[in-house]
Fold this sequence. Notes:
Elements (H helix, E strand, L loop, with lengths): L3 E12 L2 E12 L2 E6 L6 H8 L7 E6 L2 E2 L5 H7 L1 E4 L11 H5 L6 E2 L2 E2 L1 H15 L14 H14 L4 E5 L7 H16 L3 E5 L3 H7 L2 E6 L2 E7 L5 H9 L19 E9 L7 E6 L3 E5 L6 H8 L7 E6 L2 E3 L4 H6 L2 E4 L3 H5 L6 H6 L7 E2 L2 E2 L1 H14 L16 H14 L4 E5 L7 H16 L3 E5 L3 H7 L2 E6 L2 E7 L5 H8 L4
Parallel strand pairs: 3-10, 3-11, 6-9, 9-10, 15-22, 15-23, 18-21, 21-22
Antiparallel strand pairs: 1-2, 1-4, 4-5, 7-8, 11-12, 13-14, 13-16, 16-17, 19-20, 23-24
Helix pairs in contact: 5-6, 13-14
Amino acid sequence: MGEVILTMKGIDKSFPGVHALDHVNFEVRKGEVHALMGENGAGKSTLMKVLTGIYKKDSGTITYEGKETEFASPRDAQDAGVVIVHQELNMMGHLTVAQNIFIGREFMKGGIIDDARMNEETEKLFDKLHINIDPTKKMGKLTVGKQQMCEIAKAISQEAKVIVFDEPSAALTESEVEELFKIIRDIREKNLGIIYISHRIDEIKVITDRVTVMRDGGYVGTLITKECTKEDIIKMMVGRVIYEAPKQKSNVAKDAPVVLKVEHLNAGKLVRDVSFELRKGEILGFSGLMGAGRTETARVLFGADPKESGDIYINGRKVDIKTPMDAVAYGIGYLSEDRKRYGIVVEKSVAENSTMVALKNFMSGIFINKKKEKEVAEKYVEKLKIKTPGVEQLVVNLSGGNQQKVIIAKWLVKDSDILIFDEPTRGIDVGAKSEIYHLMNEFVTEGKSIIMISSEMAEILRMSDRIVVMCEGKKIGEIDISEATQEKIMSMATLRN
């Protein structure tokens, strides 16, 4: 690691009712990958927004390249060489790769955009970064992983000196993560300072040099990555030891009634002759690699996508689910893997989101009974321990883990008996994960039944009573948790049809 390029000292920031940053310290050196970790709501994003001029700090100092600095806007920060690669990519799908790389900085020739020059410069840039992508291809045709590479290349092309990676691997496959790490190592060699925000502790151990941990808006400490353990980081993040052991045996009674039965379900290439049963009080894990058909099966069950053939039975009765409204009427709730697109309305309040599925229960004539809505929302905020100043708070202002809990509240208000949780802990920290696990166990104890889709093997082994393994749209088999191992699941998940 080289000299310090960026120092943030005593950074303080408050919003009405929330002390978001409490005298936080952070520094980055040239040629360093420095992890910034903490539970959702710890203040990581707020600190980066202060750095890049989105928020104005209340107090503290930012020193960049030896000079005290305060960026007036993200464009101001970018011009100085401080760039964020966002988790939610900002690329335009209808434009080419080269046009996205140089958007707002286009090369001109005779008053016309010079696409040939932009293609050429993009090719040179990709060669330096060992990226193999056609600059003339439409951005929307690329995988999320390839789009991520383009976003990184764009940051480098802006002559960045400090790059912030915000949850860069959240939507990537394992092979795409490997490609990402190669690029990060390469730009580290070029003496850039890299800030790496992630909840994946295993990743942090592989790619970073130092780890700074935040908790409840404050600075906890900084560790040298190779000298600390995963447990050290977790304890600093949550202030307590969290250990989630694999489940040893099913908690479901042998004679528990079947609440959902699916027979020979077909829908497109990724749902092919899928059959399974879900029992009352059971957590049925769905495991498999990316593209195995797990989410597609869930979407057909919920009526979000049409089925071609097959039968669905709820409590022994054959049902016809054509729309999500049908599924909701039959007592099915769905927590999507893409919560911001399908789960919540971020510009609405916690109360409005919590009651939207059961809105007719809160109507007085043609008006919503706001008092009743508030009382019910407050009940579930307390039950689910949702961190919010109040139920009037807009969901956009909550952390990822708390947004997830608002979606769960929505289905509890509706009193859904069958809950489909698709990647329930994606993008949330270890403390919030533990809380979600606790809630899921509470729900099944109360008699609800859960289908849990997860790409995290530890989560599948920790939570499931029984595991359905899928590959290329087909159910390969089932394993009782008492017999499940990571090796057994993986061997089934890679069994081609």
